[in-house]
Structure formats: structure tokens, C-alpha cells
């Protein structure tokens, strides 16, 4: 599972208090062992129900028993039989307890037949931050009333939601083979796990038969139904397909095209070839998360859909694609035995994003990605959470920035400590020993110890079974006679001491000498030699250790760090510090020089922070920014340059902005449009209104700014769809204030279409982020809208109030 972006969720934490209940969450006891699951299903689109038949083969796990308990949520059970004999059962709408008729020993298999109706709309269980609903089976526009939305069906099983559409033992420590017959109207295609064995037409319907002969967990079962175009590729003998809408079929290979290379790269890196018989990816409308690694049948949210104008900037789904591919080893081949051990799935999948970027784009790019993940972990309320957690309040709480972000960073530290050879040899053995089984973190530890010969108990205790990270205070004592520097390290965090390897670079000019020490204690000191007095001491020089560092650095230290540091995180830190003091000529020049950095994210950061207020004294730098705007190899850097020039509001720059509007990059076009607006409003507005809808959607942020500043009431319905994202996704105070103003402007307006669009978005986001309290935030926003309308003096007031109150009632349900 790949989460949706957490920016909005982090912004919402100020609205909600988090409560934890210390309840021990054990692995689910295995009373029975699933063997095989055979399903026959069809759909009642009108009533959003599934008609199902199931043949479930199982046996007692160890102890003899005469009953079996299945998870079956909100179903109508019509028949339960074995060998054509009706079986007695008890059903409470969650658990189906079946009397087997006699006692079975652990060596005796039995097959139960069930006929049932699944009713996903009656499921009561809640979702999570990563998976916003948990009804298992989703009908999208099932009656076709919405002409702007396709009719689709898709499933989402993690954590325990597939038991909303077929009875099973819905636990990650179960594994079963499967076959499924899916009957649909002939106009639809289907997708499920494994191989499509046959297709049989029956009048206007068709039955597709899918089969997977390898065992996997019940939460990984998948069905997808809809009118898709299937774009096919192949890696060696492995079939690969992309199920996309007709509109995006021409771009499917550009969106998903690295899939083949990822499968090959990960297989080579792990020493274990891709273990399944195909790899398909499908895009689901209104999907409830980022993506899900259903075995051989991955589903992505609509964020995956991108046009060439977006892909030229960056493929925003690429990390997610890598994440789900890697799950086919970590999660699908070897599965966490319990949700407490979720990190065995998600930490590895998150770290795969680093591995892919390191291989494809280089170490600096991968480090930048991992730093963003670590910052996401630190920005949340996560310090007290263990990676392996047996005391969560709800299993859905495990899908957080600890299991994902911090977990990936911990694996990076583990790889660094063991070395690549031992790390990958250990993973190969772990995957081989536990293939098609479930595992826990101790088994990973023992396997890595067996391979490397190292004791890893201390590492797992503090990073997997412990919480937090080191908070370090660093100071330096120089001995000029002996030409040594003593690096003093004090751990400031309360309650525990960490021990860890620690990289320290001693810079003499541009030359850095790397020293790797091992910190073991709350107060540690290390004496390091030098030839000439160091220009900079850089601790955590490789950026591997997850930590907070406090040290006293002056401007000259940061300027040196910006120019010579090896690790992206240190360059970024230095650039942001130097940018605060650009009234100093050396600082300004350092920021300006960073615009030439080899790594595009540093160039962007320099452009975003360069101070050009006194533009007359900085003509050479402005000339350089013009060149970047026209010629940089990365369109995102071009866009940053255009945006920086736009802040000057200089009519002489109009040709730059007009040229930007001819770019293939939507980012460059958007920045050019805003830049043009401040030097030629009329031209910018004309071009904004003339843009095709597909580009307007992508450029919602700059267009919203232009239309609001113009108070263009004809564009209010468009603007209303994007205000909430602007209010909560931006971290810049002045931008938040701007969107708050825009919200009030629409809330007071008589434009009923705009009011409807805004309240619809409030309801969607209120439900989507309900677990973060956004339903309450949404209700407060709607109450404000009612007050604004009540004070307004226009003929649509009563109608608009009714629309808002109806939306409020939906959120209060």
C-alpha cells in the first residue's frame, strides 16, 4: 500500500488530538489453515451488491475441531453446505461460525460451499489515514447517472476488508491459492490476480476465469471491472499490462513504462527473480488510497493519470509504481504475520523508492527523496511510536509515517551498518526461507545475523522495538599544537540512549577526510587529526543517521557547507541558512552560485530563495536567471526561474513569460502565466480563459490566483473546486491568507454553482480525511458559509443556504 501524500493530513493535526490505548495486539491465532478459495461472482449494479458462491478449502491448524470461524461482514448468507449437506451456523453480521458436522484433525482437509450476497454499503468498519474507507467492494457510478464519470467496480482488501465481499479468514498470517469466475456485461473488461484462463460469453454477459496457483494473503485478492483500454508490454517472458481509460491509453507506457526495468532491477538486487506469473496495473476512479499491491493486479488512484505536459516535469507516480512492485517480494511473497509487524511490508516498500532512485537517478536524488520522507516522519506526532508496535489503538493506525517513512530510513541505516553484500545476501535468504509464508521482525533479525555473523539485537531493540531518534548537541575543541579536533557529542533526548555509527567529515578547503566513529553512550568524544585548521566539521556527513543535530555554526561555516558538502541534506540546510543573510555580499553570492549546482533540487531551492529586491545592483544574476528560464535541462528548474523573475513585476521580462507559455511543460506554463499577469493583466486573462480544459485542471493553482485577484465571477465555479487544497496544502502563511480570502469571497457570493462546487469539495474531503478530524473542520467551514450567506443580500441566498445545510447534514451523519 502506498499512502496518499500526507501534506494535508499533517496540516490537519492541529485540529485533532490523538488518543492511544495500550492494548496488546498479538498475531491472530491460527485455528485453521486456508488451502484454496474458489469464487463465482456477479453484480447487482442498481443495488450495489455482489452475488457470490464460494468453495473454501481449509483444515485445522493443529488442534482437532468441529467448527470453523470465518470473517464475513454485512452479508446475507443463503446457504452453507459440505458434500451437499446443509451445515448449521451462527452469524452476527461480522463472524460466521460454521458447525462442520464432525471433528476434523489437522491432517484432514474439508471444503465448504457458501452462497451469499455481499452488501458493501452496509459495512460499518472505518478506514485509516492511508486507506480512507474499508468497505472492501466499491461501485463507482454504478447506474451511469453521472455522465462525467465511468462505471467501475474495484476492491480494496487491506487491512481486513476483503471479507466484506467473500467469507474468509481475513488475517495476514493466512495464505491461500485462488480462482475466481467474474460475470459482467460484455462491454466491461475484468482484472484479478493470476492468469486469465478463459472467457465465456453468455448473451450480453461474459464470464472471465482468473486463477492464481501460488499462495498469498486474503487481503491481496482483487477484482477490477470497467471500460478500460489494455496496453500490453513484456519483460522477458512476463506479461505486463496497463488498464487505463481511453483518454490516457496513448500515455500509458510513459506513465508506467519503467515497470519492466523495476522488476528486473529489484530481482537482480535481491537475488530472487520476480516470483509471480504476470504484472498488471489498473487505475481506479475515486480510489481510496494512493495504490495497492494486490498480487499481480496493482490498483492506482487517478493521480497516476498524467499528460505529457506533466510527465516532462516529473512522473509523480513513479515512486508509487516502484513501491508496489517491491511489495511483490516484501508483503506478497513474504507477508507480515500481524499488523504489529506491518513494517516488514511497508518499510521495505518505502525503501525500494530510495533503491530505485539511487539506481536510476543517482545517490543525491535518492538522498533528497529519503530526506523528504524523514522530514515527514519528524513533522508528525511520531516520536513516541515504535516501528514494530503491539499496543496500537486500531490496526489502521499502523499506516503512518513511522511504518513507512521512518521504517525506510531505518533500513537505510541497517544497510549502511551491514554493508551492501551482507544486507542483500540477508534479504535473499529471508525471502527464500519464508517465501509464501508469513514472518515477524525477529525472523528478519535472525536471518541477517546468520548471514552477517553480527549481533543485531541492539539495533533492532532501539530502532524496530524502540521509539524516537537521537537528538544531538555537537561541540568542538581544537588543539592547535597537536593539530587535532575533539568532537563532543551529547545525546539530549529523554529516557533512552542510542548507539550508532556516525560519519564525520573534516574539511580542509575543498578536501574532506571521512572518519566513521561509533557512539556508545550519552556523552561521547572523538579526537580527529588534521593538517591545516579545518574550514568545517560536518557531522552525520553521509546523512544516514535519523537524528536532530544542534551545533553553533556561523555564516562562513554554512557558506563552506553549501559549496562543498557531499550530502544533499547538508546543502539544503546550508542554503536555507545562508539565504537568511543575503544582505551580506558573500551570502548573496553563495546563493547565486548555487543556481549552478549539478543537482536540480539545489538549483530550484536557490532560485526560490534568491533575494532580488535591489534588482538594479544584481543585473548579472538576473541575466543568469533568464538563461536558466530558457535553457535549464530540467523544466522544473525553468519553472522556478520563471517564477523568480515574475516576482520582479518588470515589463521588460514580458518576452520571458510569453515564451514560457509556449513550453511543453505545464509547470513552466503556469509560472509564465502568473508572471505575465503582473506585467500584462489583459493578455494573461485572455490566455487563461482560452486554455483547454485539460490544461486548466492541471494549472488550477495559478489560475485560481489570477481569477480571485481579478474578482472574475464567471470563473468562480472553477475556483471553488480548488480553494480547500490551497488553504490546507500550502505551508506559506501569505498563501493561506490568500485562499482564506478566496473562501470568504465565494461564501458571500450568489453564484449557486460555485457554492455547490465548494460544499461538494468540503464533503468529499471531510469524509476522505475523517480520521484526522476534517469532518469537524468541514462542518465549521460550512457553518461559516451559512453565516456569510445569511448576511448577504441577494436572491440566491435561501437556495445557497439550503445547499450548504444539506452538505452539513451529510458530514454530521
From TrEMBL:
One Pfam match: Peptidase_M1_N
GO molecular function term, any single one: peptide binding
Cellular component, GO annotation: cytoplasm; extracellular space; membrane
Keyword set includes Metal-binding: yes
Catalytic activity: Release of an N-terminal amino acid, Xaa-|-Yaa- from a peptide, amide or arylamide. Xaa is preferably Ala, but may be most amino acids including Pro (slow action). When a terminal hydrophobic residue is followed by a prolyl residue, the two may be released as an intact Xaa-Pro dipeptide
Enzyme class of the recorded protein, top EC level: hydrolase
InterPro entries linked: Aminopeptidase_N-like_N, Aminopeptidase_N-like_N_sf, ARM-like, ARM-type_fold, Peptidase_M1, Peptidase_M1_aminopeptidases, Peptidase_M1_dom, Peptidase_M4/M1_CTD_sf
EC number per UniProt: 3.4.11.2
Domain Peptidase M1 membrane alanine aminopeptidase: residue ranges: 257-463
N-terminal signal peptide: 1-19
Keyword line: Aminopeptidase, Hydrolase, Metal-binding, Metalloprotease, Protease, Signal, Zinc
Location of the Aminopeptidase N-like N-terminal domain: 36-220
UniProt GO BP: peptide catabolic process; proteolysis
Record carries keyword Phosphoprotein: no
Cofactor: Zn(2+)
Family according to the record: Belongs to the peptidase M1 family.
Protein name per UniProt: Aminopeptidase N
Lineage of producing organism: Bacteria, Pseudomonadati, Bacteroidota, Flavobacteriia, Flavobacteriales
Amino acid at each position: 500500500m502506498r499512502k496518499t501524500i500526507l501534506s494535508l493530513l499533517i496540516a490537519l493535526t492541529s485540529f485533532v488530538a490523538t488518543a492511544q490505548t495500550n492494548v496488546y495486539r498479538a498475531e491472530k491465532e491460527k485455528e485453521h489453515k486456508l488451502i484454496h478459495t474458489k469464487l463465482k461472482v456477479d453484480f447487482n449494479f442498481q443495488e450495489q451488491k455482489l452475488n457470490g458462491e464460494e468453495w473454501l478449502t481449509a483444515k485445522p491448524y493443529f488442534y482437532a475441531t468441529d467448527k470453523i470461524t470465518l470473517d464475513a461482514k454485512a452479508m446475507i448468507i443463503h446457504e452453507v453446505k459440505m458434500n451437499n449437506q446443509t451445515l448449521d451456523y451462527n452469524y452476527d453480521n461480522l463472524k460466521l461460525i460454521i458447525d462442520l458436522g464432525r471433528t476434523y484433525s489437522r491432517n484432514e482437509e474439508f471444503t465448504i460451499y457458501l452462497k451469499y450476497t455481499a452488501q458493501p454499503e452496509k459495512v460499518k468498519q472505518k478506514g485509516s489515514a492511508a486507506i480512507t474507507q474499508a468497505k472492501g467492494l466499491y461501485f463507482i457510478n454504478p447506474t451511469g447517472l453521472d455522465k462525467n464519470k465511468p462505471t467501475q467496480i474495484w476492491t480494496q482488501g487491506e487491512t481486513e476488508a476483503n471479507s466484506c465481499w467473500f467469507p474468509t479468514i481475513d488475517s495476514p498470517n493466512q495464505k491461500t491459492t485462488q480462482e475466481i469466475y467474474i460475470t459482467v456485461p460484455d462491454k466491461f473488461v475484468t482484472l484479478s490476480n493470476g492468469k486469465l484462463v478463459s472467457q465465456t460469453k453468455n448473451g450480453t454477459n461474459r464470464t472471465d476465469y482468473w486463477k492464481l496457483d501460488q499462495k498469498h494473503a486474503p487481503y491481496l485478492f482483487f477484482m477490477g471491472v470497467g471500460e478500460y483500454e489494455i496496453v500490453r508490454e513484456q519483460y522477458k517472458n512476463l506479461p505486463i499490462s496497463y488498464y487505463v481509460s481511453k483518454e490516457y491509453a496513448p500515455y500509458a507506457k510513459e506513465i508506467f513504462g519503467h515497470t519492466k526495468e523495476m522488476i528486473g532491477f529489484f530481482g537482480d538486487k535481491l537475488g530472487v527473480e520476480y516470483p509471480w506469473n504476470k504484472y498488471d496495473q489498473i487505475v481506479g476512479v475515486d480510489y481510496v488510497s494512493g495504490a495497492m499491491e494486490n498480487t499481480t493486479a496493482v490498483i492506482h488512484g487517478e493521480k497516476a493519470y498524467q499528460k505529457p505536459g506533466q510527465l516532462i516535469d516529473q512522473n509523480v507516480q513513479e515512486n508509487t509504481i516502484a513501491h508496489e512492485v517491491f511489495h511483490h517480494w516484501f508483503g506478497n511473497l513474504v507477508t507480515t504475520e500481524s499488523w504489529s509487524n506491518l513494517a516488514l511490508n511497508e518499510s521495505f516498500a518505502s525503501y525500494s523508492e530510495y533503491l530505485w532512485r539511487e539506481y536510476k537517478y543517482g545517490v543525491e536524488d535518492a538522498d533528497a527523496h529519503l530526506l523528504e520522507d524523514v522530514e515527514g516522519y519528524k513533522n508528525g506526532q511520531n516520536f513516541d511510536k515504535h516501528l514494530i508496535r503491539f499496543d496500537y489503538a486500531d490496526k489502521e493506525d499502523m499506516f503512518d509515517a513511522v511504518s513507512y517513512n521512518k521504517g525506510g530510513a531505518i533500513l537505510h541505516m541497517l544497510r549502511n551498518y551491514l554493508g551492501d553484500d551482507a544486507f542483500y545476501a540477508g534479504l535473499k535468504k529471508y525471502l527464500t526461507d519464508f517465501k509464501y509464508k508469513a514472518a515477524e521482525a525477529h525472523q528478519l533479525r535472525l536471518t541477517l545475523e546468520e548471514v552477517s555473523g553480527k549481533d543485531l539485537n541492539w539495533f533492532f531493540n532501539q530502532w524496530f522495538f524502540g521509539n524516537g531518534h537521537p537528538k544531538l548537541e555537537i561541540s568542538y575543541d581544537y588543539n592547535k599544537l597537536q593539530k587535532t579536533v575533539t568532537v563532543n557529542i551529547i545525546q539530549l533526548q529523554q529516557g533512552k540512549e542510542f548507539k550508532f555509527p556516525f560519519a564525520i567529515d573534516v574539511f580542509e578547503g575543498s578536501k574532506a577526510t571521512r572518519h566513521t566513529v561509533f557512539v556508545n553512550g550519552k556523552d561521547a568524544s572523538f579526537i580527529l587529526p588534521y593538517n591545516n585548521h579545518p574550514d568545517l566539521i560536518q557531522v552525520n556527513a553521509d546523512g544516514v543517521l535519523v537524528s536532530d543535530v544542534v551545533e553553533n555554526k556561523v555564516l562562513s561555516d554554512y557558506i563552506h557547507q553549501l559549496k562543498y558538502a557531499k550530502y544533499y541534506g547538508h546543502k539544503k540546510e546550508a542554503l536555507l541558512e545562508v539565504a537568511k543573510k543575503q544582505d551580506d555580499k558573500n551570502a548573496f553570492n553563495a546563493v547565486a552560485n548555487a543556481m549552478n549546482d549539478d543537482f536540480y533540487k539545489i538549483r530550484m531551492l536557490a532560485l526560490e530563495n534568491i533575494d532580488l529586491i535591489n534588482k538594479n545592483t544584481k543585473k548579472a544574476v538576473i541575466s543568469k536567471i533568464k538563461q536558466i528560464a530558457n535553457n535549464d535541462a530540467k523544466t522544473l528548474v525553468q519553472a522556478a526561474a520563471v517564477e523568480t523573475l515574475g516576482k520582479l513585476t518588470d515589463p521588460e521580462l514580458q518576452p520571458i513569460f510569453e515564451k514560457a507559455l509556449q513550453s511543453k511543460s505545464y509547470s513552466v506554463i503556469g509560472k509564465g502565466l502568473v508572471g505575465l499577469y503582473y506585467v500584462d493583466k489583459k493578455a494573461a486573462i485572455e490566455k487563461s480563459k482560452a486554455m483547454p480544459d485539460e490544461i486548466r485542471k492541471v494549472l488550477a493553482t495559478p489560475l485560481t490566483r489570477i481569477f480571485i485577484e481579478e474578482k472574475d465571477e464567471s470563473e468562480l465555479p472553477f475556483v471553488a473546486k480548488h480553494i480547500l487544497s490551497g488553504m490546507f496544502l500550502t505551508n506559506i502563511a501569505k498563501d493561506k491568507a490568500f485562499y482564506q480570502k478566496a473562501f470568504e469571497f465565494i461564501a458571500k457570493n450568489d453564484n449557486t454553482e460555485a457554492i455547490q462546487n465548494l460544499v461538494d469539495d468540503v464533503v468529499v474531503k471531510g469524509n476522505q480525511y475523517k480520521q484526522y478530524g476534517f469532518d469537524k473542520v468541514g462542518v465549521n467551514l460550512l457553518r461559516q458559509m451559512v453565516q456569510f450567506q445569511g448576511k448577504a443580500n441577494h436572491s440566491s441566498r435561501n437556495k445557497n443556504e439550503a445547499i450548504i445545510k444539506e452538505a452539513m447534514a451529510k458530514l454530521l451523519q
